[in-house]
């Protein structure tokens, strides 16, 4: 499903969800899987490092998620910033080419999936759905300013007084322009840690005349506010006021907080809700690693899914430390729930 500029953003997402059967599956953790395949991501560029060193691994992970049932795959551009690439000695032109490459790799994975379906091989995904009925969107990821800093501040949202609205707009401007023209179907503004950055995105979309649909996804550590302490309701209102925003939600947040956050978001917006929590583990910014002792197993994670759907979430997936197995289980759980619901209507 390629984005058509003549289609209203809200209709774009409504049409997509209808094609998917009323809900869509988002992919899972990218960096987690890249490391499983042998990538060393101990670098300020994090998963974006693989755009330089091993793009084939990124393509493989995207394809793994598609085959697990994902309807939306998110590009490896979360920590891919022009400023970060320049710090590595790359030119502005080379950095922009890598941003475009992140989307091209995801599109290639989608093409491989459809090609296999057309040839009659690998034409069944995790829940038994034939791929011809498996619409896929490619979302270009935009991580927060804190992600670029690589100091864990996307998990605190505390940037200091020196970082103003204009600072953030100047930082993100060219990156958003490039990704908007990259061939992606939408832009996913992810792990937004504070209201200020959401406002910066909203103003940039308007100032630059960005036509491509976007979603705003925040992170929370208490189930009431985003990580900076700003109210989730106030942040969702910023997203609601922006025409290009086609979904509002939460990512990289422990599963136990999601239900309440969905309810808070729905009090202030009628836009579809997207949620893709982490496994429940905690990120240690000093050690640059996830503390595994507090995580939940796949089956426990998936046990929440039905409740999230009932609460009103339309797009559901996983974030850090979730895997293709998680997404396969989410797909099966939602498919079973949908089938049971349909049966009750007859």
From TrEMBL:
SUPFAM superfamilies reported in the protein's UniProt record: Homocysteine S-methyltransferase
GO MF: metal ion binding; methyltransferase activity
Any single Pfam family the record assigns to this protein: S-methyl_trans
Binding site for Zn(2+): 252, 319-320
InterPro entries, sorted: BHMT-like (IPR017226), HCY_dom (IPR003726), HCY_dom_sf (IPR036589), Hcy_S-methyltransferase (IPR051486)
Keywords carried by this UniProt record: Metal-binding, Methyltransferase, Transferase, Zinc
CC cofactor: Zn(2+)
Keyword Amino-acid biosynthesis: no
Cofactor mode of binding and number, as noted: Binds 1 zinc ion per subunit.
Domain Hcy-binding: 12-334
NCBIfam families attached to this UniProt entry: PRK09485.1
PANTHER family attached to this UniProt entry: HOMOCYSTEINE S-METHYLTRANSFERASE 2-LIKE, ZGC:172121
Official protein name in the record: Hcy-binding domain-containing protein
